[in-house]
Design goal:
Length: 469
């Protein structure tokens, strides 16, 4: 694992103490706090990091030392400046017994940009020293970054890379500061970003196998890598199939793919059991798609409820079936590839019949309701099965816009359509994220626009690594 001491810590706020003394403390020196005193010190890291904090305490019987870690100095407003107030967040507490060389060292790493030390003494003076923040993460090795002339895009690409670093440890994880779980929906974007910047296949292989284990060992759809809990996200199982397909595109390791195929077939069989009149009825669980605004409810589109009918989810299944057909053909299973191809043809026809609004030339989110979203139209483009029908979807005035989480698919659709102007019109959304100073919350990859990724190539195994075009 990557293991280095974080330097250039900056004291942003001192309450109840001397600034110069605490500046020395932030640089690894000593500081003393007098009896019956309370001091708050807020330190800003040079960039977002995951780290093990280490702090030595001498003397100070009865004193309490609290170390708090946060992504921002407050839940709202300016995330770059302290604002004169202590922070709230995950806290480690050391109760001093008066002895020497007591060490505060958590058993697990902490994360964020802000580190706060609060000291409350009793009847004895206490000495703090040896502050170290040791960064930890998986040691990804990056190739030369994509070069772009636009300053905002270059800055955003840098933040995307840092996001990937802080979200890759023993596993990928959705975020380092909260859940620390490897969901298929998040991990797929992280792996695509890894493919665009690194040749290291080990994190990707581990992600595939860990998520697959939730199916093999716990009889669940493979949605995330902590199957013992109650989370059940059917849509992420389809993303996992996409993860397998992505791996085939970028790495020539047929043995890994063959080991995943039983899981791919099992997942699609489970979904196919819920087909009615040629369309998928939403499965039980949380059919998460995106954190978009109304009419999405807690990430679920209209028709995403149990037994509901939704175009985005059906298109996700369509893409997954075509991915499976590609994979079967790649390993020489022509009969299975043909079966999936026929199923995809049938589903394509039913989607067009049930969801198409012929007067507006767009797909509805759910039958009988005039709800149109970027999600449906971009997935229709990415499926490669509605050639030319939805190429101008970005000009539709009634579309519900996606959140940053789903922007990746919109970028990919615009890339496939060679619509550079529309892409750059979408980028201000990403620039808004950049300006809000939230480097650990970006789930999109600018690199994927510049690198020729092949999201959702139907029946085209020439795109797989190790095959000839």
């Amino acid at each position: 694992m990557h293991d280095t001491i974080i330097n250039d810590l900056r004291v942003a706020l001192v309450s109840g103490g001397d600034q110069a003394q605490w500046d020395r403390f932030a640089a690894g020196g000593k500081v003393e706090v007098l009896p019956r005193a309370t001091v708050h010190v807020l330190i800003k890291l040079p960039t977002y990091a995951c780290y093990y904090p280490r702090l030595r305490v001498d003397g100070g019987a009865g004193a309490c030392v609290r170390c708090t870690y946060a992504e921002a100095p407050s839940n709202k407003g300016d995330r770059e400046h302290a604002g004169g107030k202590p922070i709230n967040g995950l806290t480690d507490i050391l109760l001093a017994d008066g002895g020497n060389a007591r060490i505060l060292l958590p058993l697990w790493w902490r994360s964020g940009v802000w580190f706060q030390t609060e000291v409350q003494t009793a009847e004895e003076e206490i000495e703090l020293s040896g502050l170290e923040l040791r960064e930890t993460r998986y040691p990804l090795s990056f190739v030369d970054p994509t070069r772009v002339d636009d300053t905002h895009l270059a800055d955003l690409a840098t933040i995307c890379r840092r996001t990937l670093e802080t979200c890759c440890h023993e596993t990928y994880m959705d975020c380092p500061h909260y859940e620390q779980l490897m969901y298929a929906g998040d991990a797929r974007l992280q792996r695509l970003t890894t493919y665009a910047q690194s040749s290291d296949a080990r994190p990707a292989i581990k992600a595939l196998r860990m998520i697959e284990s939730s199916r093999a060992n716990f009889n669940q759809l493979p949605t995330h890598a902590a199957p013992g809990d109650a989370k059940f996200i059917p849509t992420f199982a389809l993303q996992w199939i996409g993860m397998v397909h992505d791996f085939a595109v970028h790495h020539d390791q047929p043995s890994v793919l063959r080991s995943m195929l039983p899981g791919v077939r099992s997942v699609l069989d489970r979904f196919w059991e819920n087909m009615h009149a040629g369309l998928l009825r939403s499965l039980a669980g949380w059919s998460f798609v995106d954190w978009a605004a109304d009419p999405f409810q807690f990430g679920v589109p209209q028709g995403g409820e149990l037994a509901g009918l939704n175009a985005t989810i059906n298109l996700s299944l369509l893409i997954a079936i075509d991915h499976a057909s590609d994979l079967e053909l790649y390993v020489g299973e022509k009969e299975m590839a043909s079966l999936y191809s026929r199923r995809a043809d049938e589903l394509t026809s039913r989607i067009a019949e049930e969801f198409l609004d012929p007067t507006r030339s767009v797909l509805r989110e759910t039958p009988g309701m005039d709800t149109f979203t970027e999600h449906v139209q971009s997935l229709a483009v990415l499926s490669c099965r509605f050639e030319g029908k939805f190429d101008d979807f970005t000009r539709h005035p009634l579309l519900v816009r996606c959140s940053p989480y789903f922007t990746h698919c919109v970028f990919e659709a615009l890339y496939r359509l060679h619509q550079a102007e529309a892409f750059f019109a979408t980028v201000p959304v990403a620039n808004g994220i950049l300006m809000s100073c939230r480097p650990a919350c970006i789930h999109l990859s600018v690199h994927q626009f510049f690198q020729r990724s092949r999201y959702g190539l139907a029946s085209d195994t020439s795109c797989f690594a190790g095959t000839s075009s």
